[in-house]
Every structure is written in structure tokens, then in C-alpha cells.
Design a protein that fits this description.
Layout: H1 2-25, H2 31-53, H3 61-86, H4 91-98, H5 101-112, H6 119-136, H7 148-170, H8 176-198, H9 208-232, H10 238-245, H11 248-259, H12 266-283
Helix pairs in contact: 1-4, 1-9, 1-11, 2-3, 2-8, 2-9, 3-7, 3-8, 4-7, 4-11, 4-12, 5-7, 6-12
Length: 294
């Protein structure tokens, strides 16, 4: 049990650190190129894993169409908006906004999956929104100056919620590895032409260390960590595992301090407590609670 929690904690650290990693990478690579390159190396990892497991499956036209849509919205646009946003957005604030994804997912599930919308979810949403406002306003309730990058992070959050809902629906017929592999292949293929359409100027580092950092973070964050999470989530209490996942904004704060020398403010800590508290309140169910990472 301790070993499982240790691995899950590693996953949370990897995902929380990704905000800071992304902030570093967009200084050396233009957003569309960075998106395409990361997807390329993620696909290589997933293809290698599928070859090792001999896990390639054919899909019917309906599932293939759904996975193609998922690859465009939940993979390409999700990844691209993330890096575009991080060009100017603060990584800690970005992590806090993305931490509210379970709340939006709950509302979408109520619409498309006919899941029950509870008073607890509504109240938790209000608490989380107060926290976001507090962080974005930097403690000042009189005026809010929203960074343009944060608007793209909101797009990232919306597409992530859509990805979760679509994956939930597809997983009833298709296994997770197949969904992840094919959707990332679609996302990568779609991303290639946009490198030349959206990036002006096109920027790419020539330093080997920057390329190693790009490849390593892509594989570890989106490949290895997701695989470790899916393996170990079976051995622990799901509600406790979900609490671990809500620590991602705090990891982003600490990594921002260590790698970017960005001080942690009292406003960020207070806003984080509101947001994480609201998310836990919204998503917690006493009898049946499950959180899945894709």
C-alpha cells in the first residue's frame, strides 16, 4: 500500500511540475512546434508500449470518428492552448484554473451522461470560483486584470473536461490504451500543418539540453506517469488518491519557486485552499467515488 501511494505521489509531482516545465519550454520553442514535437514523442512511447504488449486493435467507423474528434479537441487543442497560455500566464495560476476541471466535468456529465447534479456540487463550484477570483485578482477585490494567457488556459480546462467525458463514453467499448494511442496519433497528425500556420516566427532551440528536456518531460509526464497511475490506482482507496491529485497546484507553486525563483504569496495559498476545497466538496461522494486519469 505504501509503495502504491509513493508511485501515485510521483505522478502528482510530475503533473504538477508540468506547468513549470511548459513555462520553461515555451521560452525556447514556439507553441505549435512544441505541441507537435511533444505529441510526436508521446506517440513514439505509446507505439513502443503497444508493440511490447502486442496491443493494436481495429475500430469500427463510429468509434474511429469519435476518437478522431477526441484527438483534435482533447489532445491537439488541449496541448496547444496550454503552451500558448503559458507564454504569458503564471504557471501557478494556470494550475489552479486547471484544478477546477472536475467541477466542469461534473456539469458536462450531468448534461451528456445524465449524471446527478447535486447541491454539494453547486456549493463547491461557488467556493472554487471565489478562490479563482481571489488568485486572479491577486487579493484586490476592486479590479481584475486578466492575462490573455489565462484565457487560453481556460480553453485548456474546457477541452480537458470534454476529453474526460468522451473517454468515459468510449471506454465502455474501447480499452484505455487504444483510446490514448489513437487519439494522440490523430492529435499529432493534425498538429503538423498548424506549426507553419500559427507559429510566426517559428522558434526552436538548437541546444541538446533543451531537446533532452522536451523529450524527457513529454515521455515522463504524459506517458510513464499516466501508466504508473493506472497501474497503482487499483491498489488504493480512490477517494484518498483523488486528494493526492488535488495537490498539483501546490506542486506547481513549489516547482515555480525552485526552478523559476517565483515566490509563493499568501494570496496564492489562500486561493489554492478555496479552489482545492471547492473541488473536493464538489466531487466527493460518500458511497461511490472514483477518479480516473487518462
Amino acid at each position: 500500500m505504501l509503495k502504491a501511494y509513493s508511485w501515485l505521489t510521483f505522478c502528482v509531482i510530475a503533473w504538477g511540475s508540468n506547468f513549470v516545465f511548459g513555462k520553461i519550454l515555451v521560452q525556447d520553442f514556439s507553441p505549435s512546434l512544441l505541441t507537435s514535437l511533444r505529441l510526436f514523442f508521446i506517440v513514439l512511447f505509446l507505439v513502443g508500449l503497444s508493440c511490447y504488449k502486442k496491443h493494436f486493435k481495429r475500430l469500427n467507423k463510429t468509434d474511429l470518428l469519435a476518437i478522431s474528434f477526441l484527438g483534435i479537441i482533447g489532445v491537439f487543442i488541449n496541448q496547444w492552448s496550454f503552451f500558448v497560455g503559458l507564454q504569458t500566464a503564471d504557471p501557478t495560476t494556470s494550475a489552479l484554473i486547471l484544478a477546477t476541471t472536475p467541477i466542469l466535468t461534473g456539469f458536462l456529465a450531468a448534461i451528456f451522461l445524465k449524471e446527478r447534479l447535486t447541491i454539494r456540487m453547486l456549493f463547491g463550484s461557488i467556493v472554487a470560483i471565489i478562490g479563482i477570483y481571489f488568485v486572479v485578482a491577486k487579493g484586490s477585490l476592486s479590479s481584475v486584470n486578466i492575462d490573455k494567457g489565462l484565457l487560453w488556459i481556460v480553453v485548456t480546462m474546457i477541452t480537458f473536461a470534454i476529453m474526460i467525458i468522451m473517454t468515459r463514453m468510449l471506454s465502455q467499448r474501447v480499452d484505455p490504451l487504444t483510446i490514448t494511442l489513437y487519439s494522440n496519433i490523430v492529435g499529432f497528425i493534425v498538429s503538423v500543418p498548424f506549426v507553419f500556420l500559427l507559429d510566426n516566427p517559428l522558434r526552436a532551440s538548437v541546444a541538446i539540453s533543451d531537446w533532452a528536456f522536451l523529450i524527457g518531460t513529454a515521455i515522463i509526464v504524459h506517458g510513464v506517469a499516466a501508466l504508473i497511475w493506472n497501474i497503482n490506482i487499483r491498489y488504493v482507496n480512490a477517494s484518498k488518491a483523488s486528494i493526492l491529485s488535488n495537490l498539483e497546484p501546490f506542486v506547481a507553486m513549489i516547482m515555480g519557486l525552485v526552478l523559476l525563483y517565483k515566490p509563493i504569496t499568501g494570496v496564492e495559498i489562500a486561493g489554492s485552499l478555496f479552489i482545492v476545497g471547492g473541488v473536493i466538496l464538489s466531487t466527493y461522494q460518500q458511497k461511490d467515488f472514483e477518479l480516473k486519469k487518462v
